[in-house]
Design a protein that fits this description.
With 115 residues, the protein is mainly beta. The protein contains 1 helix and 7 strands. It has a domain of 80 residues: Carboxypeptidase-like, regulatory domain (Immunoglobulin-like, Sandwich). It is 9% helix and 32% strand. The termini are far apart. The N terminus is likely disordered.
């Protein structure tokens, strides 16, 4: 068994030379949100849906299987999910599980803008 000993002074010098992480008081911890977007009419995955954190420029797009990952600065953020041909949804997402979102296709009956 090999034992290496170092003095307190040596360890203090090592600590002083280690890189330091500095965070501002307003900096929030980022949370990863996972989800999958589906067509409500036929349960098919929707690729190319835009996922945006409301009130920010943070966003992403769903992949070919409707999956998305987005890093956001809060535990349960409100996201807008939009894609041409479907009603836009604004939903609060959970950070501790996969979020399944079903978008309603636009029809003549539901073409009014939603908030």
């Amino acid at each position: 068994m090999l034992v290496i000993a170092c003095s307190q002074e040596t360890r203090e010098r090592e600590i002083a030379n280690e890189p330091k992480t500095v965070s501002s008081p307003n900096e929030e911890e980022m949370v990863l949100i996972r989800g999958k977007v589906f067509n409500y009419a036929d349960s098919s995955a929707i690729s190319g849906a835009i996922i945006m954190l409301i009130g920010s420029a943070i966003g992403t797009i769903t992949d070919d299987e409707g999956n998305f990952l987005i890093n956001v600065p809060s535990e349960n953020p409100k996201l807008a999910i939009a894609v041409e041909g479907f009603k836009t949804e604004k939903l609060v997402m959970k950070s501790d599980s996969v979020n399944y979102i079903y978008l309603i296709p636009n029809t003549a009956d539901n073409m009014l803008p939603n908030d």
